[in-house]
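Kindly review this protein for my students:
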Amino acid sequence: MGAFRQPDLNGDGRLTHEEARADVNFSPRFNDIDINRDGIVTHGELLRYLQRTCGVSPAA
């Protein structure tokens, strides 16, 4: 998912709050997306968030 990979500056497949700050759409939602509150958003957490809040299941 491009919206996830673009802010992932170090390419590790996880977004820290610092990486997400550059994205004005992602940053305000970071804590809502970070389901387990570990300070990192994974692709799985983002997918669950989109499904729960938007009712969509984007392709992995």
The first helix runs from residue 2 to 5. The first strand starts at residue 14 and ends at 16. The mean pLDDT is 84.
